[in-house]
Amino acid sequence: MIREVPLSISDLSLSRSRPASFLAHVDAKGGRQAVNELTVRHPRSLPRPLEPATIRQVMANMDARGRLIVEWAVATGVRRLEIAGLRVVMLPDAASAALPVVPIRLDVTKGGKVRQVYPPLPLIDRTRAYVREERAVTVRRARERNPSYRDSDSLFLTEQGEPMTPRCIGALFARACKKANVKATFHDLRHAFAGAMLRFLQRQSLRAPELNPLVALQAILGHADLATTSIYLRMLATDLPAVEATVNELYEGLGS
């Protein structure tokens, strides 16, 4: 019924987020596939920044340990995997309180690439208090139940004294969201940090033109590809008022 095909065929690189085929390791085309020119692209959905009031609403349904975990995610952008990999020995001592910024080296990261985060000093102080008080009680009770129990040195422990896993951290946050009637995931806390930090870096670049806000954010978040970080530029363009609220209110609230 049609004498010729009304379109042409061209090679298109497949999205890296698409699962690889079983024989991907022997693919000589390097992940490229022949498609017609009318192939519809599916744009990646933009992350929605959580407003400070929403985050505090969720935190109101958590215990001290849970609230502290959320603060770490919002103030540093760490993932569940990275929070689960935090150890007590990573916390700086009290003598570091005089320094303006105290970096913490993350050994357990996505992709295994070591990076640093910069938690605010009030957050470090509250974390030390958690170690001295709530965590110490958890360890003592675990030893009472089992005399052979050995502390794993993980920063955050379950009620049984075991290291918290990334799945456990996600479930903890999900339960609090359900109680608060809030639709969010733990990774949304990282989006909130990323949007606020990018806006902060943009402001800083006005006084320091040599600063590239997007490249700086890429290093802070530990992204291997700058294209992954650039999604937050589009988020700012779409939800700038919400991000501005995070910059002006959230960090002030966490730092008090």
Describe the structure.
This protein is mainly alpha-helical. It has a single domain, classed as Intergrase catalytic core (hpI Integrase, Chain A, Orthogonal Bundle). It contains 9 helices and 4 strands; from the N terminus they run ββαααββαααααα. The chain has helices at 52-59, 64-76, 80-84, 121-145, 166-180, 187-207, 213-221, 226-229, 231-255, and strands at residues 9-13, 32-36, 104-106, 115-117. The strands form 2 sheets. A two-stranded antiparallel sheet has the order 1-2. The chain has a two-stranded antiparallel sheet with strand order 3-4. Strand 3 (104-106) and strand 4 (115-117) form a beta hairpin. Helix 2 (64-76) packs antiparallel against helix 4 (121-145).
What's the arrangement of secondary structure elements?
Layout (H helix, E strand, L loop, with lengths): L8 E5 L18 E5 L15 H8 L4 H13 L3 H5 L19 E3 L8 E3 L3 H25 L20 H15 L6 H21 L5 H9 L4 H4 L1 H25 L1
Antiparallel strand pairs: 1-2, 3-4
Helix pairs in contact: 2-4, 2-6, 6-7, 6-9
Helix content: 40-55%
Based on Cα principal axes, name the global outline: globular
CATH homologous superfamily designation:
Intergrase catalytic core
Strand arrangement within the widest β-sheet reads: 1-2
How large, in whole angstroms, is the Cα Rg? 22 Å
Count of individual beta strands: 4
